Amino acid sequence: MAHMAGKRGFFRNAFDALIEARQRQVSSYVNGALLMLDDETLRAHGYTRDELKRSRSVSYMF
Fold first, then answer.
1. pLDDT per residue over 45-54, tens digit each?
2. Rounded distance, CA 5 to CA 22, Å?
3. Is the pTM of this model over 0.70?
């Protein structure tokens, strides 16, 4: 049976959605931890407080 490269199965799509949700969750958690640092440390590592606050606007249940 020929495999179609463009077609993905149900379980693959569900797994990809799960991974994407967990990545957003981790990103939100890390941004929250970074917001606890002072502005000088954030600036030294290439972040701004406003940028981190914007990207943390979504909250997750778990």
1. 999 999 988 8
2. 26
3. no
Q: Classify residue 34: in a domain, yes or no.
A: yes
Q: Is 11 contained in some domain?
A: no
Domain ranges, residue 29 = 18-55
User: Does residue 5 lie in a domain region?
Assistant: no
Query: How far is the C-alpha of 31 from the C-alpha of 50, rounded, in Å?
Result: 11
* Cα dihedral across residues 6, 11, 13, 16: positive or negative: negative
Query: Residue 46, by phi and psi: left (phi above 0), alpha (psi -120 to 50) or beta?
Result: left
